[in-house]
Amino acid sequence: MITRRRNGKPRVRVAVAGQVPPPxxxxxxxxxxxxAELGECSDLEVIHVPFHFTRDASDQGVxxxxxxxxxxxVWIRALAAARRGRVDVAIYPVGGTARTPVLRDVLVLPVFxxxxxxxxxxxxxxxHADVWxxxxxxxxxxxxxxxxxxDLALVMTPFNTRDPQMIGVSRVAVLPHRIPDNYDSExxxxxxxxxxxxxxxxxxxxxGFPELLEAFADVAADEPTLELQVVxxxxxxxxxxELTVLVQRLGVGDRVTFVGHIRGRSKWEAFGAANLIVFPTxxxxxxxxxxxxxxxxxxxxxxxxxxxxNREVVGxxxxxxxxxxxxxxxxxxxxxxxxxxxxxxWQKWGEGNRRRFLERYVRTADRQQLADLIRREASGSPVAxxxxxxxxxST
Length: 395
Prior knowledge:
- Helix content is 39%, strand content 17%.
- By secondary structure, the protein is an alpha/beta fold.
- It starts with 11 loop residues before the first strand and ends in a 7-residue tail after the last strand.
């Protein structure tokens, strides 16, 4: 059965695969945003084929029998969606480079190729070009064969085109995340007498968090107004015990506030209270930090690692981008010191970031780049790739 609009034209049926929060992860939020964006389009019929592979934050990347059972359930859900009518386009979020998410893709992605006329794979998780160049066993080779059957690969920065191109996907489009403008001046409570540094993300080593605490301790000794607010969950192999020992050893317990996992208004209040944000990631899977554009939305200066696509996201005059080298802690501490010394530029950086957000990353009713891309795929008149569909130059 084909669902029709009032004008008699058939609606494009789009199946969006993937898990939405909880737990909180960048990919799950991305799936949630895609569903919200496409759901606003009256000419699209959006079907969510949910994943439930991850029970909580500590379950990410963990192998267990229940995930094999869930793979079978995903097949059932996808086939049920196809029985209700044709699927014009399926959007599938590619897993990371670890073997557990790769195995998930090998088991699950074929059903979406089977049910959909056009298959779009979304590389929110990156790093394939780097990891697979060193390690490509039978599982990765099989996954590559399956990925190459996609009609289009979607990435969020030009940097990340390297992943699907290395795998051999024939067409690649660059389309950054876009989110609603949730800025609310009534929630801005920044204290000009303080220097509140916000970290929002998973608390784990690959996100640079232990080095952030150490760098903060180095700089805070000479900066009495500097304080750190940490929003996020602790993920293995980092543990709460390690975190407690580290905070006690550094002696920063009175200058660091741990908030835990928050969403909605509470999260926006954290952005509104901060003076600047720090994003010290060096995760090989990093592709597009949503927290960066959220910070830009809230007019915050950015201190970020110059890692993978971060520079392409925030631009050249957003704050401070520091190198990721052999002396990560020292480079991060120097970036924090430099930011404190350049406090007179915070307002200018923040205002520029807000403008960049509005120009490039805000989602409005008349800016539906993802929906337009889906319509073209469904029509059988796709744009030749590699192609930039967003604010970045064509690759």
